[in-house]
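Late entry, written up from scratch paper. The run itself happened at the end of the previous shift, but nothing got recorded in the book at the time, so transcribing now.
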Amino acid sequence: MDAKDVMSRRKVLKGAGVAAAGLTVGGCTLRREVQGKKPKINFDNAYFYDAEGKFKLEAAKDALIALMQYHGYPVFPDVREKLWVSDYGTGQFTKLGLGANIFVNNEEHRYMLMDIYLLPNQMLPEHYHLATDKNPAKLEGWLVRHGVSYVYGAGEPTANIKAVIPKCHMNGTVTVRHEVILGPGEFTGLKEAEERHWQFAGPEGVILTEVANVHDNDGVRHSDTNLVFG
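Output as recorded:
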């Protein structure tokens, strides 16, 4: 690793607000505990954009690796190269975004498995899945590995939801507000095809596993049509 790479990792860890000693990312050490308590992890949105406001993909990947290290999630040898990351064109990655690693997406037999990574208090935007000429509508469910996720979908709206919907998502609105709170080892899924759904990470972020029949980018639709997908 060259000096540029090391400095990049140092910057993201400083932005993450994670104390030192215990876990290592890019030559910097993270601490799991400070006087018996796990420190807070948070990120500065400015770190993810250059002077012209362009999204810095590698900085976002640094943050996701730091999140993995913080939770003790295994950082697989090729995970960085496989990470798909987006801020959906909002310029507000810490408020609205997604990191994902698709382990398998078998269109012949129609099964898929991926892990999703959300930063602290980050929203995965409201969306739904339609059938395409190649695949049926995607049906999916989620198992939390680390952290907490607030999952929203069809059903009776929950009063006083935990999520804070950012203004960059339909001016702070959504269409579905039925809340399911998931901690490690807990699972929930869509009730029906084409159901709108979204998630919001807890204060330590969340790492979860998604299982589904199949994923087809052509079938993805977002409630906020101003978002840039991909």
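The chain has two domains: 1-70, 83-230.
(Scratch paper discarded after transcription.)
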